[in-house]
Amino acid sequence: MKKKEQIKRAYTSGNTDTKQLAESYGTKEKYVKKVIREAALREEDKPVLTVASYIEAVRLNLTTVEDLARFFKVSERTIKNFHARTLVRQRLSEYLFELHTLSDVCSLLNEVCNTITPLAADYKPAAENIKRLRKIITEIEQIKP
Questions:
Q1: Do residues 79 and 113 make contact, with C-beta atoms less than 8 angstroms apart?
Q2: Distance from first CA to last CA of the chain, Å, rounded?
Q3: Residue range 39-79, pLDDT digits in tens
């Protein structure tokens, strides 16, 4: 078995001290971290940190650096570097504050309803929720600023 595989196996079996792994396998700690990072990127259960997945995480109310790091299984430093590199926070705040009027909100909600209505045709609870949402949209549209 190659050294890389041995390091991965030791790491996944619970030995997470990278310095100790480096000493055990006669390599540098930097190499151990690289092996672990590469292996982690291929794990199916680990979400990959992209702008789209970040936005999805925020939509799940994961907003603190600590929560995001735990969710993506990366360090807090990685999240901070991601913020700086992608400017995702600024892009997200622009997206969240794009809607300025109730009319804008109603338009967006109508668009959502129109998109999911065909998907919900065979599922009665979803169809009822859409009907309720349309009723709420009508009530919002009647509000005068």
A1: no
A2: 71
A3: 764 444 556 788 878 877 877 778 788 888 888 888 889 88
How would DSSP label each residue in 60-118? TT--SHHHHHHHHTS-HHHHHHHHHHH-HHHHHHHHHT---SHHHHHHHHHHHHHHHHH
The CA-CA-CA angle for residues 89, 92, 112, to 5°, reads: 160
What is the CA angle 134-137-143, rounded to 5? Answer: 150
Q: Residue 27: phi, psi to the nearest 5?
A: -140, 180
3-class secondary structure, 49: coil
> Would you say the C-alpha torsion 110, 116, 118, 124 has a positive or negative sign?
negative
Predicted TM-score (pTM) of this structure: 0.39
pLDDT digit string, tens, across residues 114-141: 888 887 778 888 888 889 989 988 988 8
Task: Read off the tokens for 143.
Answer: 């509000």
43 closest CA partner among 82, 12, 4, 15? 12
Residue type, 20: Q
